[in-house]
Amino acid sequence: MRLQILGGGNNQLGAIRRAAEQGHEVVLVDYFKNPPGRKYAAFNEVVSTFDVEKNIEIAKKYRVDGVMTMGTDQPVYTVARVAEALQLPAFLDVPTARAVTNKEVMKAIMTDNQIPTVPYRFLTAAAGVAELKDIPFPVVIKPLDSQGQRGVFKLNSPAEVINSLSETLSFSRADKVLLESYYPSDEITVSAWVDKGVPEILTITDRESFSFERNIGICYAHEYPSRHHNRSPEIQTLVDKITRAFQIKAGPLYIQLLVGDQGIVVNEVAGRIGGAHEDIFIPYLTGFDILDRVINFSLGIIAAPPRPRAARLSEHLSVQLFFAKPGKIASLTSLERLTKLPGMIAAGYNVAVGETLETIANATARAGYLVIAETSERALHQAINQAFDALKISDEQGQNLVIQPKAYLD
Question: pTM here?
Answer without folding.
Answer: 0.93
